[in-house]
Design goal:
It is built from three helices and twelve strands. With about 290 residues, the chain is an alpha+beta fold. About 20% of the residues are buried.
Length: about 290
């Protein structure tokens, strides 16, 4: 029975086509011709509609394929342009950083050379980094490492091509420093984790939050006048003779990529000679006052 259901429509279509063929050959206006037209007409209209629908689906399919290929091509273009934008932004940022370092190098006194940071110490307390300059580049032990914003640290280990830099926030770091506003003297000490304090400052001294702290140059390592940080908190309520002053570093140590290394050493201070010179001056003043 199912076979007849599929076969009957086919037979009807063939019969309609045969009737149409006969009517075309026989142009007389007979009842047979008119009947065949009544039967074949709707079938022809249906076949035309079916052919148009098939053609539309076929064309739409190819159009969709073309749109998909065009979209994929545009996506590749957008991805490529996105990568170019990222690269251009990185290049511009690097150029700005290097320009600031170059401006500092031109205006600063001494022989400075640029270096790139190649590694960081992962420890939270012992804070250091490795730069791509070494003894072959003329880097001396304890060489100051800076940026245009201020002090980064000093060189503590040297190989022919690399150097290890101890950051100013490390617990083993110590820098002789002044409060820039009034020259109050203290020792800048690191405490790890980005924390620093200005130690051995008397409670009677005037130190305020916001004060800038700079190198004094008296330690024989760092040149005088380099920024090291700003005061964020002053506590005079603690026990003892000295206040507690917390310092925030001037340099964003977490965002560093390039630094400057001072290749020429500061002249070490001869404290004995300085003391003898002061003694002679006091003696001369005393003799002159008699």
């Amino acid at each position: 029975m199912g076979r007849w259901k599929r076969t009957v429509p086919v037979i009807l279509v063939i019969a309609c086509l045969a009737l149409l063929s006969l009517s075309v050959r026989n142009r007389s206006n007979t009842a047979l011709n008119r009947g065949s037209l009544e039967v074949v007409g709707p079938v022809g209209s249906f076949m035309d509609g079916l052919a148009g629908w098939v053609e539309g689906v076929w064309l739409s399919y190819f159009q969709l394929i073309g749109v998909k290929e065009e979209n994929e091509s545009l996506k590749r273009v957008v991805d490529r342009q996105g990568r170019q934008i990222v690269q251009l932004t990185e290049d511009r940022t690097a150029n700005e950083r290097l320009r600031r370092l170059l401006n500092f190098k031109i205006t600063a006194e001494g022989d400075y050379k640029g270096a790139k940071i190649v590694a960081w110490d992962p420890g939270p307390w012992y804070q250091s980094m490795v730069i791509d300059l070494g003894s072959q580049d003329g880097v001396p032990l304890n060489a100051p490492v800076v940026t245009e914003a201020g002090v980064v640290g000093r060189v503590v280990e040297i190989t022919p091509n690399f150097s290890k830099v101890l950051l100013i926030t490390d617990s083993g770091s110590g820098i002789d420093a002044f409060v820039q506003r009034n020259r109050v003297h203290g020792l800048l000490s690191g405490h790890g984790g980005g924390q620093m304090t200005l130690d051995y400052v008397r409670k009677a001294d005037d130190v305020r939050p916001g004060d800038m702290v700079v190198t004094s140059g008296l330690d024989g390592i760092f040149p005088a006048g380099l920024s090291v940080g700003s005061v964020t908190l002053v506590d005079k309520k603690s026990l003892g003779l000295f206040l507690e002053a917390q310092i925030n570093p001037s340099v964003d140590l977490n965002g560093l990529e390039e630094v400057l290394v001072k290749l020429d050493r500061e002249m070490p201070i001869d404290w004995m000679a300085l003391g003898g010179d002061l003694k002679r001056r006091f003696e001369e003043q005393a003799l002159g006052g008699r």
